Every structure is written in C-alpha cells, then in structure tokens.
Amino acid sequence: MNLSFNYFLESQSSMKSTALVKRSSSQVTDQAVEIIHERIQNGIYPVGSALPSQRELSSELGISRASLREALTRLAALGLLNIMAGKGAYVTALESQPVEQWNIQFKISLKDFYQLRYILEGFSALLACEYISDHDIETLNQHFQQLKAAIEAHHWTEAAEHDFLFHQLIIGLSNNQSIIQSLKNQTDWMKQSQILPFVQPNLAYKTVQEHEQILQALSQRNAAAAEKAMRLHIVGAAQRAGVYFSSHSI
Q1: Which of 50, 151, 229, 244 has a CA that sits 20 to 30 A from residue 117's CA?
Q2: Distance between CA atoms of 166 and 228, rounded to whole angstroms?
Q3: Contact at 8 Å (CB) between 204 and 159?
Q4: Is 52 part of any domain?
C-alpha cells in the first residue's frame, strides 16, 4: 500500500471502462461512481472544473446515460458535484459532505476519529493475541461470516452492525481498560464510522478481505500481523469513506 495513501489509479481509471458493459446496472453505477471519484481525487477533474458532457462521459465509460445520471446523482448527494440544469456537472469538493460535516458540534473531523481508531484498535489487536481463546476466535468467526453474508446481500446496516461487534470484541480482548473505556464512550461515533465506508458499495467486499486477514492473524496469535492487518483495515475503511491520511507505521 502506498504510504501516502493517495490514489495512484490515474492510469487505471480509463482501463476500467471496458469492464463496465458486462456488469449489472447496479454494479455499473457503483463502478462509475468509483472511477469518477478517483479522477476527482487524482486531480483529473479538479475542484471547480466541469465534467465532460454526459454523452462524452457515458461513451467513454461504455455505460448508458441512465446509469451515468444515477452515478452523478450519488456523487452530488455526497457533496462532490453540483449538477446544474443545462450547464453540466461541476466538481465542488475533494471530500464528501458527510466527511466534512461529521461531528461539527464537537469539532472532531472524521479524519481525526479514523486516526484515533488506527492507533487504538491496531494496538488492541496486538494485545488481544495475548488473551484470545479458541472460543473468542469462534465468536469472531461468527461475526465475520455474518458480516460477509450481509455485504454479499447488500444489507449495509446489518453489515455495519456485525462489523461493529467484530471490532468491539477485539477491543475488549485487549484487556486495556483505558482503550476500552475511551472507545466505549464513543460508541455512536464508532457505529457511524463503520457504516460510512459502504457509501461505495462496489468497494464493500474489500471489508470482507480485510476482516479475514485480521481474523487469520488473531487465530495464529501473531501479534505483529494482527496489528498490521487492523491498521490496514482502518486505513482502507477510511479511504472508502472519503478520508485520507498519512502514516509511516505500515
């Protein structure tokens, strides 16, 4: 993974378009959202600039105008685009409005919270290897299987709940009361941060792969691998929610 956590897919985004034609309409829309979002992040479509016309963009991506309009509408709902009737779509931000407006009351950004999770949950996974039992591993696997099934069924709220339970068990297994109480006091924020990554459904299955790596490391009682897997997951989840931060720890 790139340590700067910047998108490096500029050269790949044009290649993805040929694969869109063979997917279902929902998958096509999801991938169109992903490609356009990547291009915004890469500066291909800078803030303040207009996107290509719908005819040009739908032709380039190999998708219908209807699928493209749905993708643009979703990006507009996230605050990334402003669609002006008769004038086109304009890029308004690099980050989604949910990210920018998250917990304004407490002056805590979503980036702040993901960075907190990166530190505390990574260390929790490391500590958990000292205390985890076979029964705990079985329970974690149950949460993992339920998370996987919910994602495959596109039941995002249910997926977020099993994601939350998976993480809570690992935090509890750290046996570090300072960490446990710190994150317990932020349960609502934790749940919010765990449903936001599903705003890009096409990328949701990466959550399954990341949780599988965490579970495998914990099952092997490999503390270093568990910490690394958890931190990679937190970074991946943050990116899927539109949050990017640097680290030199991975």
Answers
A1: 151
A2: 17
A3: yes
A4: yes
Cα separation, 247 vs 250, in Å, equals 7
pTM over the 0.70 mark: no
Which domain covers residue 211, as residue numbers? Answer: 108-239
57 and 151 belong to one structural domain: no
Domain tally, the chain: 2
Q: Are 154 and 201 in contact (CB under 8 A)?
A: yes
> Cβ of 170: how many Cβ atoms within 10 Å?
23
Residues 134 and 78 in one domain: no
Distance CA 25, CA 76 (A): 19
pLDDT tens, per residue, the chain with 250 residues: 333 333 333 333 343 443 444 455 556 777 888 899 889 988 999 999 999 999 999 999 999 988 898 788 778 767 788 888 888 999 988 766 555 555 545 567 788 889 999 999 999 999 999 999 999 999 999 999 999 999 998 888 789 899 999 999 999 999 999 999 999 988 888 887 887 777 667 778 899 999 999 999 999 999 999 999 999 999 989 888 778 776 544 4
Alpha-carbon distance of 221 to 173, in angstroms, equals: 12
- Indicate whether 115 and 191 sit together in one domain: yes
By the 10 Å C-beta count (0-12 exposed, 13-18 middle, 19+ buried), 108 is classed as middle
Which of 166, 161, 181, 162 is CA-nearest to residue 128?
166
β-pair partners for 50: 90
